[in-house]
Write a structure and sequence with these properties.
Elements: E1 2-6, H1 18-32, E2 36-43, E3 50-53, E4 58-63, H2 67-81, E5 89-93, H3 100-105, E6 111-114, H4 119-126, H5 132-144, H6 164-171, E7 174-177, H7 180-189, E8 196-198, E9 220-224, H8 233-246, E10 251-255, H9 268-275, E11 283-285, H10 291-300, E12 303-306, H11 315-322, E13 326-330, E14 346-348, H12 353-364, H13 367-400
Parallel strand pairs: 1-2, 1-5, 2-4, 5-6, 6-7, 7-8, 9-10, 9-12, 10-11, 12-13, 13-14
Antiparallel strand pairs: 3-4
Helix pairs in contact: 8-12
Amino acid sequence: MNILLVSYEFPTHMNTGGIGSYMYHQAKLLSKAGHSVTVFSATLKEGSVKYEDTGYCINYVFHAPTLKDFREAVRDFFHTYIKTERVDIIESPEVGACALGIKEDYPEIPLMVRLHTPGVVITKVSNTHQPFLTKLRFVMGALRRGRLDLGYWSKTDKNRAADPEYKICLLADQLVSPSKALGDYLRRYWQLNKEIKIVPNPFHADADLFHFPIEGREKLICFVGKLTVLKGMFTLTEALKVILKQHPDFRIVFAGRDEVVSEIIPSMRAWMAAELKDVIDRVAFTGALNRQEVKALMGNSRVCVAPSLWENYPTVVLEAMAAGAAVAAASRGGIPEIIADGKTGYLFDPIRPADIVRAVKQLIAVDAESLRIADAARQWVSNSQPEVEQRILDLYQSLAKH
């Protein structure tokens, strides 16, 4: 089959997050299975459309500063592309509705939409720490504009009909979610009546991840991700004040780009550094790292912490498990569908600093515990992937017959 993946993020040119990592693993899986894979992705660098052969896919790279720019650019380009190239299936994330215009113009081509977590949900969860009066002012502002919008307190999305991310889900021939948690959430919040198949994301782990020895590691904790409210930086910072004080032989490395929180907190990194001033000599901020640097960090860390207020099916957790780092992670979203609490990692409530302290201390207080967890987690990742990959390939075969 000839498969087109349309994704704003892809590892060759963007600082990728979850979607970029997913598309990388998906392209490699489909290519390994013998399919012809093309990717439309974006770059912030100006210039004409670039064409490159990665060895496992053909990647067309578009200059697109925003998701809207990308959506329009790939729609225009596809009119020319389809004249010479056959496309059997298109896959797009709902985030950014990247292939929405293409599907509107070519409804006969089957479209698979894999859910990653819509922007409206990210905004809702990110507002968790907003002061009560700020949340209330949003509601009052909506009322003044003649509409009822409860914002953070909304149980359903009243404005979904105008959201391109909702529209592409309605047009999808197949909706897929890697976690049951996200599928259930969107059925309620978006009142989606369509079938959502639950199939985990592929994880084509680089072989060298499994080569890092579990024993003899530094007393190092790592976090990999953007420094944002959504990623749990507020409560993790509070927890670290206790963890690093009680365990002076441990240090932590934050690998990820800084983000603006609000007008009051223009830099999450600066805020965290100020809050951790008493232990700052054991706190490092690296900024964004490339794939090899992230693997090296995980492969040297005793513990990887993932305190997100919401995650769908985070690749970073799978990478840490494969690299042999014991994982302490939030019991939110799809993470409990990856980690068996007390067996392949420890789960905690990400809005309770004391619970983060409990989980991390279980992994760093006794060396044997982190070794046990890391070994079990690595085995689970290795053993679970063949079945996951086959389910994904079966899903494509089924859609091709649509």
